[in-house]
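Researcher: Checking consistency across runs. Here is TM2 domain-containing protein again:
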Amino acid sequence: MATYSSMHPDPYAQPRYFHDDPQDVDMMRNMEPTHPALLGYLFWVIGFTGAHRFYFGKPLTGALWFFTGGIFLIGWIIDFFFIPAMSEEAQRRYRPAATDYSVAWVLLVFLGVFGVHRFYMGKIVTGVIYLLTGGLLGIGYVYDLCTLNEQIDAG
């Protein structure tokens, strides 16, 4: 027999995060990755700009890589060996969404100033604004580099 509490869940209960439940973690291992290492290596090729670090959800070190040329290319070379671990960490951190992370990131990195990634995510108004203003004169482009994973995860 169903009780009142089983039919009406507590509206004040804490939200459940994708990676907190062991069942979700097991399910996640059987799914297609949200941040495949192969794409991380593609971004690593231009990694002295920090693209691979932004992709894996590390905006602070991505900015550091951008301004220092991948810490004068030494950190960039070392990152070659860290990409599988960064991919795994991003896979645990970001849950699968209707918008494919990889497609959105490729569009952002290569066509971001035109807002193509925004059109892809269904944000038509801001896509048009980016198209007409060159990614809000580059400021919106940088904002999206730092927050795209969170935008997709929340969407």
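Researcher: Does this match what you'd expect to see?
Model: One thing to look at in this run: The two ends are 37 Å apart (CA to CA).
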